[in-house]
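Translate sequence into C-alpha cells.
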Amino acid sequence: MSEQTTSSRGRREAWEWIRALGIAIILAFLIRTFLFAPFVVDGQSMETTLHNGEKLVVNKAIYLLSQPQRGDIIVFHAEPTRDYIKRVIAVAGDTIEMKNDQLYLNGKQADEPYLAEKRKEAKQKGVPLTEDFGPITIPDGQIFVMGDNRLNSRDSRAIGPVDVDTVVGRAELVFWPFGELRVTR
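Result follows.
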C-alpha cells in the first residue's frame, strides 16, 4: 500500500471521529437545553422525599405539552441566580387554606401522605408542621408550591405564588447516589 493511500485513509478516519464527536456534542447540548437537565438538591426543604446533595434528572420538555399538576415536584427560577425545588400544592383557580395543620384545597381536606414522617417529628416537638394561612386563590398563570419539610422551607408561603413561566421542569429521577436511584413521585 502506498504512503499516500495510508495518509488519505488516516485523514478520512480522523475526520469521521471528529464528525462523530461533533454530532455527539451537539446532541448532548440539545438534550440538556430542551429535554432533560441535571439538578442538585440544595438544602433540607424537600426532606424526607429528597435529600441535600442528591442529584436529579429534570424533565424540561414535559411542560411544553401540559401545565404543572398538583403533586408534581418541580424546579423553578426563584431568584436570578438560584433555582428552587418544591412540590406543587395548588394550580391556577384553586383556593387553598391551612387550618390546624390540615390543608384544604377548594374547601375539601387534602391528603398529603408524603408528610407523614415530618408530621411525627413536628408532633414530638409540640409544634404544627404547617402554620395556618389563607384562604388564598391562585391567579391564572401561577402555582402555589411548598417544600415537604414545612418547618424548614422557603416557599410560596414566603415568596407568594410562582409564575408558571419560571418553571424549569419536573423532577423525574434521583440518579445520585447510585444506591438511592428512584423515581421522585
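Note: The chain has two domains: 1-35, 41-183.
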